[in-house]
Amino acid sequence: MSSLANGTDDIILSAKALTKRFAGFIAVNGVDLNVRRGSIHALIGPNGAGKTTCFNLLTKFLQPTSGAIRFNGRDITALAPAAITRLGIVRSFQISAVFPRLTVLENVRIALQRRRGDSFDFWRPQRVLSAYDEEALSRIEEVGLTPFANAAAGELPYGRKRALEIATTLALEPEMLLLDEPMAGMAQEDVARVSALIRRISANRTILMVEHNLSVVADLSDRITVLARGEVLAEGSYGEVSKDQRVVEAYIGAGHE
Ligand SMILES: Nc1ncnc2c1ncn2[C@@H]1O[C@H](COP(=O)(O)OP(=O)(O)OP(=O)(O)O)[C@@H](O)[C@H]1O
Fold first, then answer.
1. Which region is the signal sequence (predicted)?
2. CA of 229 to the centre of ligand 1 (A)
3. Of 210, 219, 253, which is closest to residue 92 (Cα–Cα)?
4. Residues 6 or more apart from 36 whose CB is under 8 A from it?
5. Ligand 1 site residues, Cβ closer than 6 angstroms
6. What integer pLDDT is reported at residue 162 of this predicted model?
7. Could you tell me if 101 and 59 lie in one domain?
8. How far is it, in rounded angstroms, from Cα 51 to Cα 14?
9. Closest residue CA from atom 18 of ligand 1
């Protein structure tokens, strides 16, 4: 984690009094959130706590009823998802498109072309497409998929597909990555691999993730915000929030173990 020389925290993404009301129901209620540059920050909480709604507000898939969101000091509250992607906030597993019949290499190459604003032109001369290969291969290596570079994406095991999705996301050169339940539906051995991958790609990026798997959260997160009933219940390291009686009660009350 980095701090500015004057000792204040270097906040990349912040939300102030973020609120979302659905037809009279308040799903997110006055949430303040500060994500430090270079950190892995997790948003957790029992079912129905407002995590997904909060995530959708931060990625601009939903417009807040009130409150403000700032990224790198700039007010992004009124921006559209595509605009914040251009600013460097990329939501993984949503905007990344994996084409099952294409190879891993072709998928990453297309993501690179997309970033550069080139069209999805499969008829371009091979020479032009090959120009992307070096960078594509380095993204593929970054996510540990080098042995699978020429395999069809659709034939990859589930955890490797996730890794490919992350590679296509990294091709957009995000300064900040938002991961929506990256471990959802994953087998144990894949969880370990994707955890290690998230740690690796966090090296020079900021990550905010919503994740239900608390051992992954404990393992990866520098800081955790716990939501319950649409509000921030607690914030701190895993050691701190897991000992917080209100957090324990919120999970028990919601039927979690
Ligand atoms: N479009 C909507 N219209 C009405 N209510 C909604 C809508 N989206 C979410 N809600 C309600 O807002 C509350 C918070 O939902 P949200 O999905 O954000 O919680 P969550 O913490 O992500 O839960 P889970 O862990 O179960 O995914 C829930 O009570 C949900 O029913």
1. none
2. 10
3. 210
4. 1, 2, 9, 10, 11, 12, 206, 222, 223
5. 22, 25, 27, 45, 47-53
6. 86
7. no
8. 15
9. 50
